[in-house]
Here is the input.
Amino acid sequence: MKLWGGRFTKEENELVNQFNASITFDRRFYRQDIQGSIAHVTMLAKQGILTGQEMEQIKNGLEGILADVENGRLEIDPSAEDIHSFVEAELIQRIGDVGKKLHTGRSRNDQVALDMKLYIRDEIGELDSLVKALLEALLKIMEENLETYMPGFTHLQKAQPVTLAHHIGAYFEMFLRDRSRLKDIRKRMNTCPLGAGALAGTTYPLDREYTASLLGFDCAARNSMDCVSDRDYLIELCSAMATVMMHLSRFSEEIILWNSNEYQFVELDDAYSTGSSIMPQKKNPDIAELVRGKTGRVYGALTSILTTMKGLPLAYNKDMQEDKEMVFDAIDTTKGCLALFTGMVSTMKFNKEAMRKSAMNGFTNATDAADYLVNHGVPFRDAHGIVGRLVLYCLDKGISLEDMTLEEYRAISPVFEEDIYDAISLETCVKKRTTLGAPGPSVMRETVKVYHSLLEA
Here is the structure.
């Protein structure tokens, strides 16, 4: 059944019908569409536009449709134009002409805007839960590795020693910001478009604030032209998901490196790895690689919706139908990646000894040797040059700073004393860094407490 057929004298071309239809993807709105319709008829009855009996008939019919779809007794007709047409046609078939009053005082424009907002609001809740689960997994790793030493890197070069807890904490902060972005989007989008009509409202005495309250919105949208053509919240969500995926991709890249024979920092669980069809020794980090690869897919959704919206005049245009498939795919992709990534990091094992050896063999304590000289009265610039000569000496000899004798130290600078060895030990290098945000175990324990409180809030 077409909702708009009265004006037309010819049947729609079948190819045009297929091209125009959205049932293949907006069918996932069925719950939100029925939820919105129940709120709408409740308000119509409150305003005296429908009788109480008509409202009950329509509500019972809609609730029956919802129950039948959810338990599999009713299949959504793939030949329907969209989910709104399907639900309304099914309602009329079940309860007769009173079902034709369902659409009083609204348009498909405000109806689809409502359905999309209700759906996205639910999906933001699911995305937030998945990010929170990942944060909980990361926090557990941090608690167990406050004194697991490893090299910190800049430019993929070993820089200074840190702990695994500190390194994982950097990702914790990223995903914490992701949750904050999702919360902001939900708050900003929570205005109700229902009752805006096609673009200019309606002459019926609707109570839009009442409908908004029934559906859990903060208020009714203030401008009818804007709210039927607003896709800002989808752009924001795609941007937020792209950022989540970027964070997952960066983390995946590190896990891929750490899993390599050259690093051997982690061992991935068999459930999150695959083998080679020809090389029996291989254990590939496929989940991490796929997460890294699927990031571009979510970026594509963001670019696509921005491009779709950039030249559209007010108010609604059919181009906007193109928002759904790309946003749905981006949501499904991000949710899947979050769930799998959380499982992967929760089960991977850390090779603490390999991490420690790597930190010791890359001059990560060179800065601390320079700080030692500064603390003994040497200007920092001079100290920097002295330690540079120490590193050159060690490279020439094939040794580390820890391997040098005191005589070798003093040959380069007489300032060095026996306490240099304690000053450049991994434990000292990390533990004496106790300013807020640093890797010292004492400050990291306090940070972990803060993280627990943030997750519990």
